[in-house]
Amino acid sequence: MQCQGCRFWFSSKTQCRRNAPLPAVSEKGSQTLWPTTAADDWCGEFQPKVTDEKAAA
Ligand code: SF4
């Protein structure tokens, strides 16, 4: 039960995409950000990745 095995983890950017990105304001202006997490982080919203076999069933 870790982010690396979660369906919401966008691994190439280590982002959790469980929810919509949040607005952030800095001296560079405003932007939207998804939270970044480590591969071995986790939270109570974890859902396992769906494999092709499961998706086809
Ligand atoms: S376990 Fe939680 S924090 Fe990690 S990717 Fe999944 S939903 Fe996001």
List the keywords.
57 residues, elongated, mainly beta, binds iron/sulfur cluster
Helical amount: under 10%
Mean pLDDT: 92
Number of helices: 1
Structural class, from secondary structure content?
Answer: mainly beta
Order of helices and strands: EEEEH
Number of strands: 4
Characterise the protein shown here.
The protein is mainly beta. The chain has a domain at 1-18 and 30-43. It is built from one helix and four strands. The chain has a two-stranded antiparallel sheet with strand order 1-2. The chain has a two-stranded antiparallel ribbon with strand order 3-4. Strand 1 (9-10) and strand 2 form a beta hairpin. Residues 3, 6, 8-9, 16, 18, 37, 41-43, 45-46 line the site of iron/sulfur cluster.
Concise summary:
The protein contains 1 helix and 4 strands. By secondary structure, the protein is mainly β. The longest helix is centred in the C-terminal third of the chain and has 5 residues.
Protein topology:
Layout: E1 9-10, E2 15-16, E3 22-26, E4 29-33, H1 52-56
Antiparallel strand pairs: 1-2, 3-4
The protein binds iron/sulfur cluster.
The site of iron/sulfur cluster (SF4) has 12 residues, from loops.
